[in-house]
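Blinded run. Sample ID left blank on purpose so nobody reads anything into the name before looking at the predicted structure. Input follows.
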Amino acid sequence: MGSFLSEANSLCGVQLIDANGDGRKDLLVTTPDLSGYYLLTFQGATEE
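Blinded prediction complete.
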């Protein structure tokens, strides 16, 4: 089984970026069915 990052890199339309400029990684999704970014919290959860 590969690591999360190696698996994530194989997915089209999913990236980790700093969406709001706070210096933390957020999840960016750009697919035909779903698009947007999700702020990752300290607890590892996401906020829309």
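Unblinding after everyone has recorded impressions. The first strand starts at residue 14 and ends at 17.
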